[in-house]
Amino acid sequence: MSTPTGFMEYRRQIPADRDPMERLQDWEEFHKHMNEEDLRTQGARCMDCGTPYCHTGIEMTGGTSGCPVNNLIPEWNSLVFRGLWQEALERLHKTNNFPEFTGRVCPAPCEGSCTVGLIGQPVTIKTIEEAIIERGFAEGWVKPEPPAMRTGKRVAVVGSGPAGLACAAQLNKAGHSVIVYERADRIGGLLTYGIPTMKLDKGIVERRVQLLEAEGITFVTNTEIGTDIPAAKLMADYDAVVLCGGATKPREFAIEGSGLKGIHYAMDYLNGTIKSYLDTGLEDNQYITAADKDVIVIGGGDTGTDCVATALRHGCRSITQFGTHAQAPLERDPVANPWPQFPNVYTLDYAHEEAKALYGQDPREFSIMTTKFVGDEEGRVKELHTVQIERIVDDAGRKIYKPIPGTERVFPAQLVLIAIGFDGPEQTLVDRLGLETDRRSNVKAAYGKYATNVERVFAAGDMRRGQSLVVWAINEGREAAREVDLYLMGSTLLP
Ligand SMILES: Cc1cc2nc3c(=O)[nH]c(=O)nc-3n(C[C@H](O)[C@H](O)[C@H](O)COP(=O)(O)OP(=O)(O)OC[C@H]3O[C@@H](n4cnc5c(N)ncnc54)[C@H](O)[C@@H]3O)c2cc1C
Ligand code: SF4
Q1: How far is CA 245 from each of CA 196, 220, 465, 467, rounded to the nearest angstrom?
Q2: Cβ proximity of 7 and 47 under 8 Å
């Protein structure tokens, strides 16, 4: 235990982010770091409770409660409090291959289910996680650890997002020869192309990829399985195949005027900017720009929020983000949303803070639905027509959105970004391999088993569970590796 009374003696503290007006001038991470003394004090707030929900990641009423990779949070909190950073790092790496990713981008469901949070503010878990791994890199404690022996088995991993990377790391640890195929020009999946640089610097991804390479994993980019390499050849060349191709087929938004110029899917917008930034520092202009435009983002989730932050940095004239959901309450509803569920409360994400600093208000419009787009004589979008909505239960018992008469509005817009979610993985590879899919068109494979209907083919991450979180992708990649090892060797020592 850290200290039995720490949670009563010390207040929760999180590192201040960079000033919004300053960070809007660049594309660098908005986080700042905490000094060692403050980190140790925050570690002291962990009460090492009898049933630490923080490290029992489970799905609860559609959200995540606790840590999906089962990080040994009370143990490393105590070690950090005592200044035993290297020991804390060892404990952290037991459960999480990439704490430098989760320590930056995880929404921290662990904190939502922290026991101290029942009577006050939860322990600062995510910040401590990031500090442990960054200390490890700074001290030179994180080194390549190639396996002592090779098994002679060859495994292909398709897709280099967090699921594919975690799976490859674990399979390589078990001594198998692992090749990761990626169709993009850079490794990382949505860690690289998807999550903006402000949330996750791409040098952080590259640093881990180099370590994995040094441990013996081979990465092949610009190669799409099912197209550049036929699926049948993959099956012939490898003892097992793990599909970690993600689930980024955009959900269509087919309403009047949706074919107008100036209406784009969020991922095309985000990834164009990331690629141009990484290739040439945005000098090549090979991206959709929001400069001097009134921008509407349709979709109230994380992807939409990342579009807001990107548009602000492009120099948009105005920015508005639409969500069909109602504004969340300021405090957790103890009946509808009790602890240890993930708290559904009103917060300003980084992009909303930035928009507020620049324009004086939260850019979000809640309980709103777009009814049509209207274009100019050149076929370019010029405005959106909307109506306010309320959620009701219809005669058949279904929850539906009902327009509220008299609430119609018109918003000017020269750029519209569609961020209303994803409809599962792209189907080419799925069809070529003859894989069964579930009712949401994800690859069918039981959680915990990961085996598909095709012998020797496994599936993990978003491709199996649908668009989710980095930490779930790491969890699935690790667990799938254990199942593959068991399949290949008849027994496994992987966790
Ligand atoms: C814009 C955005 C922001 C997000 N922000 C967060 C966040 O802040 N925190 C968080 O926890 N989660 C976030 N998420 C969700 C998170 O990024 C995903 O849940 C996670 O990356 C899924 O990991 P994955 O490895 O399953 O798939 P992905 O990361 O999608 O990686 C799949 C990879 O497979 C490759 N691939 C697909 N098919 C083939 C093929 N046939 N051949 C070769 N390669 C192929 C793709 O190119 C891709 O690189 C965000 C998602 C988006 C879209
Ligand atoms: S990975 Fe996410 S849920 Fe797990 S300890 Fe880190 S921040 Fe919390």
Answers
A1: 19, 14, 11, 11
A2: yes
Give the global pTM: 0.97
Ligand nearest to the backbone CA of 56: 2
For the chain, the C-alpha Rg in angstroms (whole number) is 23
Angstrom CA distances, 340 to 70, 109, 116, 462, stand at 15, 9, 11, 24
Per this entry, what is the length of the chain?
495
Q: How far is the CA of 200 from the centre of ligand 2 (A)?
A: 15
Provide the pLDDT confidence category of residue 119 given band limits of 50, 70 and 90.
confident
Measured distance CA(114)–CA(125) in Å, rounded: 9
Reading the block at residue 289, the tokens are 């720009």
Best of 125, 132, 200, 469 for a ligand 2 pocket test (most atoms within 8 Å of beta carbon): 125
Q: Which atom of ligand 1 is nearest to the CA of 190?
A: 29
Strand order across the 177-181 sheet: 218-220, 177-181, 154-158, 240-243, 457-459
Per DSSP, what are the bridge partners of residue 219? Answer: 180
- Whose atoms come closest to the Cα of 473: which ligand? 1
Is 77 a pocket residue for ligand 2 (Cβ < 6 Å)? no
Asked whether 311 lines ligand 2 (CB < 6 A), one says no
Check residue 467 and report its DSSP letter: S
| Cβ–Cβ < 8 Å for 67, 109 | yes
Longest alpha-carbon distance in the chain? 71
Q: Which residues of 314-326 are buried (b: 16+ CB within 10 A; e: fewer)?
A: bebebbbbbbbee
Provide mean pLDDT across the span 89-104: 98
**pLDDT tens sequence across 48-87:** 888 899 988 998 888 899 999 999 999 999 999 999 999 9
- Give how far Cα 61 sits from Cα of 286, 336, 342, 398, 401, Å: 42, 10, 9, 17, 20
Query: How many whole angstroms from 247 Cα to the centroid of ligand 2?
Result: 22
Q: Is the Cβ atom of 290 under 6 angstroms away from ligand 2?
A: no
